[in-house]
Model the fold of this input.
Amino acid sequence: MESPVLLKGKYFEDNRGVFAPLQLNYNEGILNKEWLQSNISYNPKPYTFRGLHFQTGEYAQTKLIKVISGEIIDFVVDIRPTSPDYLKVSKFKMKDGDELLVPRGFAHGFITLGFNVIVQYLVDNHYSPENEGSIFWKTFPEVLDEVLKYTNEKSIIISDKDLVTKNFV
Done:
């Protein structure tokens, strides 16, 4: 797999609530891998920005992102220096049940568009603080322009950590 793949996951809703299984064998096995960790991101406020994050070297990670509840704009940046798509930004508007497969060699981040957004993501490799990298969200005009379609910069909720970049050339 050379680029991110948006998957339309199953999503069942009834009077009890929602059931949304991850599609771990979708599309003839492209997801059929050993996932090492499952992360949940709960974002109570709109315009929460997380990312753009990546892991380098032997700690690079494939991620399977799933929106459990709410809506996000997901950003993926190709950071493979030998790729013809190097530094190309892909964006995906995702809602309840949507899944996105992000291969190794890509930075990933998202902004929430509503209250109480829940995002789950699986990773296929261990986290290494020494191999962690981030890219400031305003580095790419495509990300900045998309974010500003929904809100102004003063409304964005972002961690201090995501305001500083490291390990990115």
